[in-house]
Amino acid sequence: MALKIGIVGLPNVGKSTLFNALTKSHSAEAANYPFCTIDPNVGIVEVPDERMGKLAEFSKSVKKIPTAIEFVDIAGLVKGASQGEGLGNKFLSHIREVDAIVEVVRDFVNPDIQHVSSEPDAAEDVEVIETELILADLSTLEKRGVDFEKKARVGDKEAKIAASLIARIRENLNAEKPARSVEIEDEDERKILRELQLLTAKPLIYGVNVAEEDLQIFDVEAFRTKAQLPVDAKIVPISAKIESELIELSDEEAAIFLTDLGLKESSLNRLIREAYEVLNLITFFTSGEKETRAWTIEKNSTAPNAAGKIHSDFEKGFIRADVIAAEKLLEAGSESAARDKGWIRSEGKEYIVTDGDVCVFKFNV
């Protein structure tokens, strides 16, 4: 099952245009009026990775199977959504179902495209969205906190942990800080935080939709300062106009178009990779004549954990894994040459798989 990334923002900031570009489709209605998206549009998006194509060519693979993320285009949020304005609770419930959020904000002026404010202001967009998410989380904690406090008073251990965590989160929210900024002390607290399903606990990327001519000169740090974002906030400038034009072109034409604009790659490729990164994910590969495939695992996963992504029997009967970095395998020119150089390692159950590893698992069931 693909992990879900929700695309959120105020009406008419370019969310649906970006979704269509991401999914190379026209499935999301992109119109010049608020709430043209009501029910979420969903699309599966491949995670771009040059290594997979090179490995497939190296192995003369019949098939290539990339890893993927599910993107969800969620209806536009408005001020007061936490109190039921606009699509209110329906909007918020859709966000609750995703694993991470891309917050699209508009940083261009176009009199032909309406904005809920008379003058688009990306920093103001950020403030409106995050205020509504914070208010929604405070409401959630108010409802859930009472139950935990009652149980804590009669000695329930888990409830005591939850009550302490909720108090710290509430303090941050009241100071206009998201739940994700609270330091989690142990796995018990992490489990409770997941169960609370707080909107501001979800990993977040800011997708700043800019005019075509501003894409190369966009100042990320100036925007970070203006929007009062933390130093580790992920900010990706995007031109929805450019991206919507790219999906109409062949790969060769798109490459020429990007070069003419002075760009190395599509901004959406970076956005997809950043989404993968904020979810704390890495890729490992299996590669042979039948297929080259990219597999998604969490960082710090062991070799048996990775083997289990392929099949549960691989994890249960794990013996060892032959491992080499994709770059080293390609550099060697052949598997036998890589073995002669000692670049293919035999790793046991304690091995932590790293991004780009090419693995062959040995198992016994």
Mean pLDDT: 85
Structural class from helices and strands? alpha/beta
Q: Indicate the percent of residues in helices.
A: 40-55%
Order of helices and strands: EHEHEEHEHHHEHEHHHEEHHEHHEE
Strand order of the largest sheet: 2-4-1-5-6-7
Query: Given the C-alpha coordinates, what overall shape results?
Result: flat
Oligomer: single chain
- Unreliable stretches, pLDDT < 50, 5 or more residues? 26-38
User: How can the largest sheet be summarized?
Assistant: 6 strands, mixed
Strand elements, count: 12
Beta-strand residue percentage:
15-25%
- The value of Rg in angstroms is 23 Å
Structure annotation, total helices = 14
Ends distance? 25 Å
Topology:
Blueprint: E1 4-8, H1 15-22, E2 41-46, H2 50-59, E3 63-65, E4 68-73, H3 88-96, E5 100-107, H4 122-153, H5 157-174, H6 187-196, E6 204-210, H7 220-226, E7 234-238, H8 240-246, H9 251-260, H10 267-278, E8 281-287, E9 291-298, H11 303-310, H12 312-316, E10 318-325, H13 326-332, H14 335-340, E11 345-347, E12 357-363
Parallel strand pairs: 1-4, 1-5, 3-9, 5-6, 6-7
Antiparallel strand pairs: 2-4, 8-9, 10-11, 10-12
Helix pairs in contact: 1-8, 4-5, 5-6
Short description:
The protein is 41% helix and 20% strand. It contains 14 helices and twelve strands.
Characteristic key phrases:
365 residues, alpha/beta, 6-stranded mixed beta sheet, 14 helices, 12 strands, 20% strand
